[in-house]
Amino acid sequence: MKLYDSPGACSLSAHIALHETGLDFAPVLASTKTPRLAEGTDDHQIKPLGYVPLLELQDGTRLTEVAAILQCIADQVPVPGLAPPTGELARYQLMALRARGAERPGVRTAMRAKGLLK
Ligand SMILES: N[C@@H](CCC(=O)N[C@@H](CS)C(=O)NCC(=O)O)C(=O)O
Questions:
Q1: d(Cα 27, Cα 93) in Å, to the nearest integer?
Q2: Which protein residue has the closest C-alpha to ligand 1 atom 12?
Q3: Where are the domains of the chain?
Q4: Relative to the CA of 103, which ligand 1 atom is closest?
Q5: Which residues line ligand 1 (CB under 6 A)?
Q6: pLDDT tens across the length of the chain (118 residues)
Q7: 16 CA from centroid of ligand 1 (Å)
Q8: 65, CA 20 to 30 Å: which among 13, 28, 102, 115?
């Protein structure tokens, strides 16, 4: 898998989730500050919506949206604490939280705790 992400962006949550699962993935720098990937490709060829994160699966399928990507990662490896199992109310409460965009304050809080953000 490849994760297109950018330092300091909401893609950090997908990066952390992938590390938590131990899944093999290649991070690809797709800075939100430049329209080109590190190797020079116009990044809109890869991510037509123009934003990160974008997860490219083994078969080449590309998935966008933090909420969907985090769920996809959590469903591949059942790591405790990453997402409640299907059928549990907590799973749908988590989906509701993500739908409200509540991941982003969480990322900012984590980054502040690590001294990466003031
Ligand atoms: N709806 C998208 C929004 C993603 C998003 O806003 N990504 C920001 C970084 S946090 C981005 O890439 N911004 C660059 C841009 O919009 O050009 C999601 O939930 O994944």
A1: 29
A2: 51
A3: 2-113
A4: 19
A5: 9-10, 32, 50-52, 64-66
A6: 999 999 989 999 999 999 999 999 999 999 888 878 888 888 888 888 888 999 999 999 999 999 999 999 999 998 888 899 999 999 999 988 888 875 565 555 566 677 766 6
A7: 17
A8: 115
The three-point CA angle 63-105-116 to 5° equals 95
Residue nearest to atom 5 of ligand 1 (CA): 51
Tokens of 93: 């409460």
Chain center to CA of 93: 19
Atom 9 of ligand 1: nearest residue by CA position: 9
Q: What is the CATH number of domain 2-113?
A: 3.40.30.10
**Under 8 Å between Cβ of 21 and 75:** no
Closest CA relative to residue 57, chosen from 99, 8, 18, 19: 18
Longest dimension (CA), the chain: 45
